[in-house]
Amino acid sequence: MLSACVLMLLVLPALGHVERNGYAGLIGNNLHFIPPDGGSIRVGEHDLFAFLSSQQTGLADIETQSSQLSGRTNNWAKQRIASAKLQCRAQDNGFDAVMRVPAVWTQDWESFEIDGTHYLVAANLEDQSNSTLYVWDTRQKMFVAKQVFPTLQAHDWEYFEINGMHYLALANYAVGYGPVTPLNSTIFRWDSNTTQFHAFQQVLTHGADNWSHFVMNGRHYLAVSNTISPSQLLVWNETDLGDRFDVYQNLTTDILNHDVKYFMVDDMHFLAVAREFGSSYLMTWNEAQAKFVKNTFIQISIKGGYDWGGHDWEPFVINGTQYLLLANYYITTAKSALFKLQLQTPFPGFTLPTLELVQTFASNGAADWEHFVIDNKHYVALANTPSSQADVHNSASDVFVWDTDASQFRSIQRIVTNTQGASAFEHFEINHVHYLAMALHDPEQAKIFAWNGVCFV
């Protein structure tokens, strides 16, 4: 008689909805998957799809696992794998997403959680329109509208917490479609009594494209990427007159900056700056000057065609190594690239950071990278928004997985948009299901895909 201590439901996305199929449980000291019609599959420390997955093909041949599968269990597993493969093939041909959200002309998504409730906020690219905050409805298993914000060609949202309070920073780009003039971007604060966000502070920006929050040496900072004037770094101050962000320093003297990202390696603090025209570069924290300064050594090391048209940096760590992905927009002059950052000590007391080019990607107006982890595997999604030099028809964005043997990313999926392309991806997890929200420069409703163990559908 088979006895098992049930650990969790294994939730697998099906076509158009999410269904429950079987359980994972302990049999002795081993984890097994128990299909609904009986039998069991020993899967070690992973779920069924992870057990059957292959670093090289995404799915191992089910027949090669036949020694560990038998009878009804074998047939059931074959059917589930075949179903997942069909879903992925359909998606490659433009199959619809598992969920749609009634948000159009989206430039960005930001996901976050407050008191156990999941939220998703859209940045609407249209002039003098509304951007919407959505809340996850646990009964309907979908996002529903929660709050509307008047915005001005919104480009970005950034969620963060300070002292237990929840904030959203909005990047307003411009009023109208003529010359871009300075205007206020807004920082909102969550009111737990009304369960709404309310305006907290106005910040003067000039063609704001991105906000980035980080904590360094115990202090909270916000970096705003201005495309028409120099980007700035703000610092959080708590005074008798009230709490607020104040300008700490101008980060750049140049313009057309699309992204600023913070990361730390050992005891060194970095800011990565993405520039559309000219070289993207890194800045390092100068302790003596108490500010970030441009690192000319790193700027030189990434020249050679991979730093032109920078729209987004994505820093992340794999096995203790710091990597950075750079999304380059102009396909005729640059490719998107993966770099590895290393710290060298040419002589005592002097640390020299260097970037090593690891991999390049043929991108079609790359606008955004999104890094995430599923079942201890590293993935990245690249959003392509065809530039004026590219064909806007039949555009596609890509999902890659880290190949540990090759120490590079390899493509596992193309998501066809057939529109003006995708401007951003946002990964999030709800009830052990992984989702990928795609922002579209299109009147078509935005799409949310769910991970089926093989691909996003």
Q: What features would you describe in this structure?
A:
The structure is a single chain. By secondary structure, the protein is mainly beta. Helix content is 7%, strand content 57%. It has three helices and 32 strands. It has a four-stranded antiparallel sheet with strand order 1-2-3-4, with helices on one face. Strands 5-32-31-30 form a four-stranded antiparallel sheet, with no helix packed on it.
* Total of helices: 3
- The stretches of 5 or more residues where confidence is low (pLDDT under 50) are 1-38, 40-73
Strand order of the largest sheet: 1-2-3-4
Task: Categorize the overall geometry.
Answer: globular
Topology, number of strands: 32
The average pLDDT score comes to 79
The helix content, as a percent range, equals under 10%
Tell me about the largest β-sheet: 4 strands, antiparallel
Structural class: mainly beta
Q: How large a portion of the residues is in β-strands, by DSSP E?
A: over 45%
Rg over CA atoms: 23 Å
Report how far apart the termini are: 38 Å
